[in-house]
Write a structure and sequence with these properties.
The chain is an alpha+beta fold and 263 residues long. It is built from six helices and eight strands; from the N terminus they run αβαβααβββαβββα. It has a single domain, classed as Jelly Rolls (Sandwich), CATH 2.60.120.620. The strands form two sheets. A six-stranded antiparallel sheet has the order 1-6-4-8-3-2.
């Protein structure tokens, strides 16, 4: 069994996937140094950084952040989840330090969506007109995260659930064995569906958390009407430029990211 076959199986089963050792030590050092140079406010004052849509976000800081847009390791997995035609919808970074509290469990699609009107304990039918699996997040771990530190947490398989999350788990996820924190050491990439019930666990690590989130969606959808802008100081590749196009019907009004000329 090759790696991609296993990755497809695990992503489909769990709603998330961790791929380790994607970035080497030199790449990690470079990216962290570039972030250090931004002189960001302390994590407890501002946990998110470099967000967009609002210009180009952290993509404007250096070409190395743009190189992650279509990193070879994640492109085949994104193609499996989103097809040949997808776009960059949002980006931001997350920083945390010891003592920062957890965030709430949530999902943007499916039974846990804020607009689903699902009723606790009642079967939820996925609407035919909604693209519930059309958004995938790629989170680059620039520091160790996992059970010993905190960070990303989720309920595996919840992206396919037809029932709303019980209030007992929502109120105290730290007490539920169903909520896990995948081990994602520095240099790993975590991919997950926005339909997965997920959140941020309290940070207990001695070091600071740093993660870069790139959020992609199928080409004919969008989270908001505004878009991430291309950085003005970096020459993007033809394939990278496609990721910044406005929404359009796949293949008809939006080109494939996997045509031979783009590869």
């Amino acid at each position: 069994m090759d790696d991609l076959e296993m990755q497809k199986y695990l992503f489909d089963l769990q709603g998330y996937l961790v791929v380790e050792n994607v970035l080497n030590q030199q790449e990690l050092k470079t990216l962290n140094t570039l972030i250090d140079q931004q002189e960001l406010p302390p994590p407890k004052e501002q946990s998110r950084f470099g967000s967009a849509p609002n210009g180009s976000g952290f993509l404007q800081w250096d070409k190395r952040f743009c190189d992650l847009l279509d990193h070879p390791t994640v492109m085949a997995i994104l193609q499996f989840r989103l097809g040949d035609c997808f776009r960059l919808d949002r980006i931001y970074g997350i920083q945390m330090e010891k003592g920062m509290k957890r965030g709430r469990l949530h999902a943007d699609y499916g039974a846990m969506s804020r607009i689903s009107h699902s009723v606790p304990g009642e079967y939820f039918n996925f609407p035919r007109h909604e693209i519930t699996q059309g958004f995938t997040v790629v989170s680059w771990s620039l520091s160790d995260t996992g059970p010993d530190e905190g960070g990303f947490c989720c309920i595996p398989g919840s992206h396919k659930s037809n029932y709303r999350l019980p209030q007992e788990i929502y109120d105290a996820p730290e007490n539920s064995s169903k909520v896990i924190m995948p081990h994602a050491p520095a240099g790993s990439v975590v991919l997950f569906s926005e339909a997965l019930t997920h959140g941020t666990a309290a940070w207990t690590g001695e070091h600071h958390r740093r993660s870069l989130l790139y959020k992609y969606c199928v080409s004919h959808t969008a989270w908001k009407s505004d878009r991430v802008e291309e950085p003005t100081n970096t020459e993007l590749t033809p394939r990278q430029k496609i990721l910044f196009l406005p929404p359009g019907e796949p293949h008809l009004h939006f080109p494939s990211l996997f045509d031979q000329k783009e590869q």
